[in-house]
Amino acid sequence: MSFIRNILNSRSQGDGNFFLQLKDILGFKPKAKSFYIKAFTHRSMNLKDELGNAINYERLEFVGDAMLSSVIAAYLFDKVPHGDEGYLTKMRSKVVSREHLNKLGQELNLIDLVQSRIPTSNFGDNIHGNLFEALVGAIYLDKGYNTCEKFIFKRVINPHVDIEMLEGKVISYKSLLIEWCQKEKNTFNYEVYEDTGNDELKHFSVKLSINDKVVSKARATSKKKAEEKASKRAFFAFQNQISKLQ
Amino acid sequence: MSFIRNILNSRSQGDGNFFLQLKDILGFKPKAKSFYIKAFTHRSMNLKDELGNAINYERLEFVGDAMLSSVIAAYLFDKVPHGDEGYLTKMRSKVVSREHLNKLGQELNLIDLVQSRIPTSNFGDNIHGNLFEALVGAIYLDKGYNTCEKFIFKRVINPHVDIEMLEGKVISYKSLLIEWCQKEKNTFNYEVYEDTGNDELKHFSVKLSINDKVVSKARATSKKKAEEKASKRAFFAFQNQISKLQ
C-alpha cells in the first residue's frame, strides 16, 4: 500500500490537476484513487507493485469492457422488446464498436491525463477507447455497479445511443424534418455559428427555425452534428405531427 | 400486464411447485415473477405479449450472459493480479464455456421447470446452459446487480471456480495429496459409499482418512468428484505442510 501511496503522491505533485480534471469527467469524487492512477498509466512507464505485477491500464480494460457490455445489454433488453438475442447482440456491438469507444475517449480528452514515456502523439486511435474502457473499469472497482451504470448512461447511452438510429429506422433526423416541412409547406432555416465558449475544442451552435420561429437549439463539435441534434430535438417536439407522414 | 398475469396464473395453477422449486434454487423469493416465467418458457410455446413480442427465454440469455461475464471479470481481476487482459479473457472463457454452463444448468435440474410443446428429452445439451443464462438474466432484471452477483458466487464461483485449477497449476488435488502422503510416509484411505439422501440423483460420499484419522468428508454426483472434493478440503487443511513438497 505504501508503494501505491508513493505513486499517488508523485502523480499528485507532478500533475496537481489530475484529480480535479477527473472529478469533472466522473461527476463525483473518486474514492479508491489507485484504480484511477492505474487507469491512466501506460505500460511504457514500466511500473510494478511490490509483488512484481504490472501497474497499467490494460487489465482495467477487461473489467470496463465487461461492464459496458452488461449495462448496454440490460438497456437494450428493455428498449428493444421485439429484438431477439442475435439482433440485440448486433445492436450492442454498434454501441461498443472500437470506433465508437475511441470517439467517447476522445470527447473526454482522456489522453491528456495519461502518464507515458512514449509521446502521446505516437499512439494510434485505439488508445482513446482503451482509456475509456479502463476508466469504466476503475469506476466499477471504486464505486460498484450502480455508479458505473450511471456513468455509462451519462456518457454513452443518453448522449449517443439512439435506438431508432441503431435500428436503421432513422438515418438522419435532419432529412426527416426537411421532408416533413416540405410536405406541410413550412419554411425552415438552420442558423449556424461558431461558439467555442469555454471549451478548447471548436464548437458550433445551431438555431433551427420553422416558419420563422425558433423551435430548437443545439451545440456540438461539428456543423453537421449540431444540425442533427437540433433536428432531433425539433423532431421529438413535433413527433405527433411528423409521425402522420410515415 | 393483465396478459402477463394470465400466463402467471395459468403457470401457477398448472405447476403449483414452480415458484417453490425456484425459491430453493435462488435462495430468495422472486419478486417480479414474469421474468422467471419467461426464463422457463421455450419458444415452442409460441407465446406473445399484447404487442406481439415473443415470450420465451432467449432474450434473457443475452442479459444473463453479460452478467456472468461481468461478475466473473471483476472476480478474476481481483484474484489473478499477475494475469494480463488476454490471460484473464482466456480464464473467463473456461468458466463460462458452453460445457460448463450446461453442467450448471443440469446440476440445478432447470429443465424440469421448462414449459415446452416439444418433449424435453428431444432437446440437446445446450438447453441446460441456455436456461442457466436466462435464469441469471431474470435475477438481474428482478433484483438488480448485487443479488445477481451473489447468486453467481453461490452457484458458479464458490463451488466451481478454482483459480489454481484454472491456471493449470493443480490438475488434481487427489494426486497432490497422495504424493504428499507417500513422501511423508503417511497412510491414506478413501472410503466411498453411495449416499442418495433426499436427492433424486445418485450421490456419493467420501471419508478421507490419513493415518487412520478422518481428515475430510465430501459428497458429489460421482465417486471421482467426491474424492477430489475431499482431497481439496484436506489439501487446504494441510496446506502449510504440503507446500513444502512443491
From TrEMBL, chains A, B:
<feature type="binding site">
    <location>
        <position position="130"/>
    </location>
    <ligand>
        <name>Mg(2+)</name>
    </ligand>
</feature>
<dbReference type="GO" id="GO:0005737">
    <property type="term" value="C:cytoplasm"/>
</dbReference>
<keyword id="KW-0507">mRNA processing</keyword>
<dbReference type="GO" id="GO:0006397">
    <property type="term" value="P:mRNA processing"/>
</dbReference>
<feature type="domain" description="DRBM">
    <location>
        <begin position="172"/>
        <end position="240"/>
    </location>
</feature>
<dbReference type="GO" id="GO:0006364">
    <property type="term" value="P:rRNA processing"/>
</dbReference>
<keyword id="KW-0378">Hydrolase</keyword>
<dbReference type="GO" id="GO:0004525">
    <property type="term" value="F:ribonuclease III activity"/>
</dbReference>
<keyword id="KW-0479">Metal-binding</keyword>
<dbReference type="InterPro" id="IPR036389">
    <property type="entry name" value="RNase_III_sf"/>
</dbReference>
<dbReference type="InterPro" id="IPR014720">
    <property type="entry name" value="dsRBD_dom"/>
</dbReference>
<keyword id="KW-0698">rRNA processing</keyword>
<dbReference type="GO" id="GO:0008033">
    <property type="term" value="P:tRNA processing"/>
</dbReference>
<keyword id="KW-0694">RNA-binding</keyword>
<dbReference type="GO" id="GO:0019843">
    <property type="term" value="F:rRNA binding"/>
</dbReference>
<keyword id="KW-0460">Magnesium</keyword>
<feature type="binding site">
    <location>
        <position position="61"/>
    </location>
    <ligand>
        <name>Mg(2+)</name>
    </ligand>
</feature>
<keyword id="KW-0540">Nuclease</keyword>
<feature type="domain" description="RNase III">
    <location>
        <begin position="19"/>
        <end position="144"/>
    </location>
</feature>
<dbReference type="InterPro" id="IPR011907">
    <property type="entry name" value="RNase_III"/>
</dbReference>
<dbReference type="InterPro" id="IPR000999">
    <property type="entry name" value="RNase_III_dom"/>
</dbReference>
<keyword id="KW-0819">tRNA processing</keyword>
<protein>
    <recommendedName>
        <fullName>Ribonuclease 3</fullName>
        <ecNumber>3.1.26.3</ecNumber>
    </recommendedName>
</protein>
<comment type="function">
    <text>Digests double-stranded RNA. Involved in the processing of primary rRNA transcript to yield the immediate precursors to the large and small rRNAs (23S and 16S). Processes some mRNAs, and tRNAs when they are encoded in the rRNA operon. Processes pre-crRNA and tracrRNA of type II CRISPR loci if present in the organism.</text>
</comment>
<dbReference type="GO" id="GO:0046872">
    <property type="term" value="F:metal ion binding"/>
</dbReference>
<keyword id="KW-0963">Cytoplasm</keyword>
<feature type="binding site">
    <location>
        <position position="133"/>
    </location>
    <ligand>
        <name>Mg(2+)</name>
    </ligand>
</feature>
<feature type="active site">
    <location>
        <position position="133"/>
    </location>
</feature>
<keyword id="KW-0699">rRNA-binding</keyword>
<keyword id="KW-0255">Endonuclease</keyword>
<dbReference type="Pfam" id="PF00035">
    <property type="entry name" value="dsrm"/>
</dbReference>
<dbReference type="Pfam" id="PF14622">
    <property type="entry name" value="Ribonucleas_3_3"/>
</dbReference>
<comment type="subunit">
    <text>Homodimer.</text>
</comment>
<comment type="similarity">
    <text>Belongs to the ribonuclease III family.</text>
</comment>
<feature type="active site">
    <location>
        <position position="65"/>
    </location>
</feature>
